[in-house]
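TASK: fixed-backbone design
INPUT:
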């Protein structure tokens, strides 16, 4: 797709005037901008307004059957004319020639339809040419990075980030799903993406785990199922630790000093081991390293089932001593670091940030805090990657923590870093599938998806199903169900898993989209080896059904750009749902016709379905899903 190529395609559709240029219009990536430009130019001539004002008065329509573009008449800013009158006047005077068909007045809106003739001749070769990159646009990312023509910008997307030797929580699951989308859409929009998993692999809880290992650890069990075993050990030691914690809590509640309690028993053992880790004593580090290696290896396999590969398994353990020192030196220099009975803290209320209260940065026994590690990690990452943006995909509960991170960076005089940081927060999943209730590891959730799908499939036996029913396909459909269900909620809305919806073949669901994809694949088996898009008989695609598929496909780039701006994936899912509905209806209609001997029509239809398949694939990949494969 080049401007000349596009002009050529338009010529074949009977449109010889060059596409008018408008600021922000990007006809090479977004075909809707072609129609927008022609419409704005025509409007400007009809009502004599400013051309850019005319362009900005045009909105995309995102309802099936309700036109392609919408002129919002008050936005034309004309004096002395009622918007409704303006609409009916325009409806009369708008030429009914390519690229437009008959307009529909609708209150203060004029709904404009693209002509079926132009749609087929322009869109099919256009999308065919853009192929895997249709809907993505490298320049969108650069505009977003405020350097339109510069080299690629780098973003670190940190997501998933579970804790070693403890459960993979639902919040980690949601972070994984949203994070994959955030990473994919950035890559598609031209960013250089580093996918980072920041493991909770450091801290006092590892000291406690080591105390547990001494009592309950079994080499044999660790060899055969490392994560399960570490989890068991952890549960046992937590059980043992509980009375001591209760004692401490009670003493605190009575306003008593807890120093004595915390200096004996498992408290002492835990803290001593963690202190050894912080002092990098070889024996402590060796044990910790074995736990960590086993954890990473196991996680890699589970993430692979989800189609996710991290570029880096960083973690709280990986922050460098130099950066920790750099943070603390800066805090002291700026006079914001306060010592209080041996621990170091920041009282944010003294620095215009009351809501952030007081945070301990370094504990009394000299060990680092979660906050200090995160601050040092920012410096490390800046040194290693010199990122332009860093996104943390972490649960909403940690909002205050990330505010503290950015506020502290500002106090350290590192606003250059804090302004690049974005916390992409998300709400809780409140109700779980039965199949998730006992899940402890990521792999348990993935198995749960397969089981839920198998259970759901037998209920729904009546739906026309084009997918096969093997174990592999149940896993793939189950995972699609999981992704789509989650990403179809706004990030900051909490929701309960709905097994019926998650496995349904109707509506905006994973199974419905993949089923449509499978149906397209089977139709396309009849496709001739080579389809020549230059000689197709496009007049075969001017029916209402076929045009509607083309219309929806035109809207894909607008949808993905909007999703990128807000980092909300639901727009993409709603879009895919519309495309799926229209494709299914059209295929049903096609099934009722006899296509024997209608070779030209068949070829044109195959080209249409091939492009629809491509758009579905692009959308699924953006959401982190692989399209169905038999
Ligand atoms: N491991 C943490 C948890 O499970 C999440 C880490 C979030 N990322 C960060 N940079 N603090 O709560």
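OUTPUT:
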């Amino acid at each position: 797709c080049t401007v000349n190529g596009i002009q050529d395609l338009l010529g074949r559709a009977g449109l010889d005037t060059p596409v008018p240029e408008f600021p922000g219009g990007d006809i090479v990536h977004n075909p809707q901008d072609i129609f927008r430009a022609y419409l704005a130019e025509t409007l400007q001539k009809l009502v004599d307004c400013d051309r850019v004002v005319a362009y900005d008065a045009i909105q995309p329509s995102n309802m099936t059957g309700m036109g392609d573009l919408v002129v919002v008449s008050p936005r034309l800013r004309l004096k002395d004319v009622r918007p409704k009158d303006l609409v009916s006047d325009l409806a009369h005077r708008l030429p009914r020639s390519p690229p437009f068909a008959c307009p529909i007045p609708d209150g203060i809106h004029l709904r404009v339809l693209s002509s079926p003739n132009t749609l087929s001749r322009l869109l099919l070769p256009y999308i065919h040419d853009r192929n895997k990159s249709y809907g993505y646009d490298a320049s969108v990312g650069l505009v977003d990075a405020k350097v339109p023509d510069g080299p690629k910008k780098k973003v670190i997307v940190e997501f998933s980030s579970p804790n070693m030797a403890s459960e993979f929580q639902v919040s980690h699951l949601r972070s994984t799903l949203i994070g994959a989308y955030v990473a994919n859409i950035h890559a598609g929009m031209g960013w250089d993406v580093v996918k980072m998993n920041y493991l909770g692999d450091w801290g006092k809880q590892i000291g406690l785990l080591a105390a547990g290992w001494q009592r309950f650890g079994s080499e044999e069990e660790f060899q055969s199922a490392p994560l399960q075993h570490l989890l068991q050990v952890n549960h046992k030691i937590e059980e043992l630790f509980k009375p001591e914690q209760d004692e401490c809590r009670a003493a605190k509640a009575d306003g008593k000093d807890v120093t004595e309690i915390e200096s004996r028993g498992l408290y002492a053992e835990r803290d001593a081991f963690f202190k050894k880790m912080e002092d990098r004593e070889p024996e402590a580090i060796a044990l910790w390293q074995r736990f960590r290696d086993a954890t990473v290896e196991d996680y890699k396999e589970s993430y692979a089932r989800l189609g996710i590969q991290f570029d880096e398994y960083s973690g709280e353990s990986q922050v460098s001593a130099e950066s920790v020192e750099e943070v603390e030196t800066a805090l002291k220099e700026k006079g914001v670091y306060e010592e209080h009975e041996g621990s170091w803290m920041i009282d944010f209320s003294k620095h215009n940030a009351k809501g952030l209260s007081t945070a301990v940065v370094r504990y009394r026994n000299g060990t680092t805090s979660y906050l200090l590690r995160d601050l040092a990690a920012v410096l490390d990452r800046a040194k290693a990657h010199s990122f332009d943006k860093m996104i943390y995909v972490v649960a909403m509960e940690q909002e205050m923590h990330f505010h503290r991170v950015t506020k502290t960076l500002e106090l350290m005089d590192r606003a250059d870093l804090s302004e690049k940081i974005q916390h992409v927060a998300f709400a809780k999943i409140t109700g779980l599938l039965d199949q998730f209730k006992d899940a402890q590891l990521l792999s348990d959730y993935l198995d749960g998806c397969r089981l839920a799908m198998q259970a759901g499939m037998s209920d729904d036996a009546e739906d026309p199903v084009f997918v096969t029913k093997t174990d592999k396909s149940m896993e793939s459909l189950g995972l699609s169900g999981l992704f789509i269900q989650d990403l179809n909620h706004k990030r900051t809305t909490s929701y309960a898993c709905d097994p019926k919806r998650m496995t349904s073949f109707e509506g905006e669901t994973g199974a419905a989209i993949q089923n449509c994809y499978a149906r397209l694949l089977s139709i396309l088996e009849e496709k001739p080896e080579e389809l020549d898009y230059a000689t197709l008989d496009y007049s075969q695609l001017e029916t209402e059904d076929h045009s509607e598929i083309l219309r929806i496909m035109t809207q894909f780039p607008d949808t993905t750009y909007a999703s990128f701006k807000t980092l909300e994936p639901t727009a993409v899912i709603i879009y895919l749902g519309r495309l799926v509905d229209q494709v299914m209806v059209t295929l049903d209609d096609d099934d009722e016709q006899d296509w024997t001997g209608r070779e030209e029509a068949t070829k044109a239809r195959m080209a249409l379905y091939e492009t629809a398949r491509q758009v579905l694939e692009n959308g699924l990949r953006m959401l982190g899903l692989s399209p169905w494969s038999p």
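COMMENT: DSSP finds 24 helices and 14 strands in the chain.
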